[in-house]
């Protein structure tokens, strides 16, 4: 028995790489985020996918079928920051896409930076950087680990989709300017666009993709995994008379006067895939033994999902076309970097809810929250007890920010004041619960919605009251059409996780619970990279089983 104990102690003291076979580091890591991707799209559309896109990752890599976001709110900015940092908004500070700043008393964007200007846009103007992200991420730690030799580039239609994954000092981050159809950056990164981006912009691909029609990739009669093309739950695209195929992209572009509708077509994904390939060639990524990192965020899935909902023909066509874009990108990586020489991981920044009106029509409980009527009734109720004053500074992201200056001046008991507001709020249909920010900051929650709210709560940036809606309820700007995301329910938290490449087990399907914050710790331990400084996710043990 003593000998067994000594052996166990000795094994525990061994370095990690002596317990597992050392994995060669890839020449290139490609981190892909598909904006608003529900996991069921992989199952529903699988029969129509090619063998070399999504199926290649599912067949030849690791498939985490039970991967979830572990915090609220499930938005794009927090999602991208969390995937690549291995932590949650409570630590990295990206609490939403936009939020009310208590410090400067106005709303800011998650990548706003007033100290920089646009590069590549003739109009100049304000621009963006990762300045609001408070922790390091995979990109930062890879750059530090290689003494700056690793090449890191982020590309996306959305600025936040390019900026947040790329970390604080990448070689570049590039996003789409819908006025010019060009990809741009900011002076945070460079004073001028590199030659390869200039050459890419000269190809005028945005104009090419917004010419002609958007028709289904396959005959529309084959799209049996989605609902009727003409239905009452969809928003019209551009100046289209009906949300049905085909869409006249030339007419839409001329009506827009710019390229604002390109992201709302599948070709917004295609142009990002084109840019990703140009980045690999232009930056000579994956050409030496130092691991590089390319982050690619496909945003058109989100734009189309918001407009048409998860059961639309448009969303099915979008994913079939994205599958083709992915297959082309993987073939390019095979050729330029070498098959077996790179690693890909693919996930989503959040999923999406069903259109509430669709659920209502199916006699399933759901509904819409109208913020302004709620605000007015709450204020009226508060005024009956406390008198008239500017009690509320802001309401955003389902959070209420109180005016602490007024509360202090009137010597109001804040806890009692919040209790009174909560009592009023809970009278509204669709509001399930309301939690205090002070509880998020002073108590420790380990499970359920309180835990997810706490992991999304940042004491310096989040509000005083946090609203939770019933399942199927949300605020929306689309009326009874279109959909959105942001909750802590499964329909918003459950996303795919696909990993493929060096050291990744092939053909491995897992149904064990995985948090989105586990992805980067897994990669860091697998490839011996320091963990991001705020990371609190855990490595996915099953990924290491083939390396023991």
What key phrases describe this protein's structure?
four-stranded antiparallel β-sheet, single chain, 19% strand, twelve-stranded mixed β-sheet, 548 residues, alpha/beta
Describe it for me?
Helices cover 36% and strands 19% of the residues. The protein is of the alpha/beta class and 548 residues long. Strands 1, 2, 5, 6, 7, 8, 9, 12, 13, 20, 21 and 22 form a twelve-stranded mixed beta sheet that branches. Strands 15-16-18-17 form a four-stranded antiparallel beta sheet. Strand 15 and strand 16 (399-402) form a beta hairpin. The longest helix has 26 residues, at 313-338. The chain is globular and about 70 Å long. Mean pLDDT is 94; it is low at 1-20.
Instruction: Outline the biggest β-sheet.
Output: 12 strands, mixed
Rounded to the nearest angstrom, the distance between the terminal CA atoms is 25 Å
Number of DSSP-assigned strands: 22
- Number of helices, counting only DSSP H or I runs of 4 residues or more: 23
Radius of gyration: 24 Å
Structural category is alpha/beta
Question: Low-confidence spans: pLDDT under 50, at least 5 residues?
Answer: 1-20
The mean pLDDT is: 94
Q: Which bin fits the share of residues in helices?
A: 25-40%
Q: Tell me what portion of residues adopts beta-strand conformation.
A: 15-25%
**How would you describe the shape?**
globular
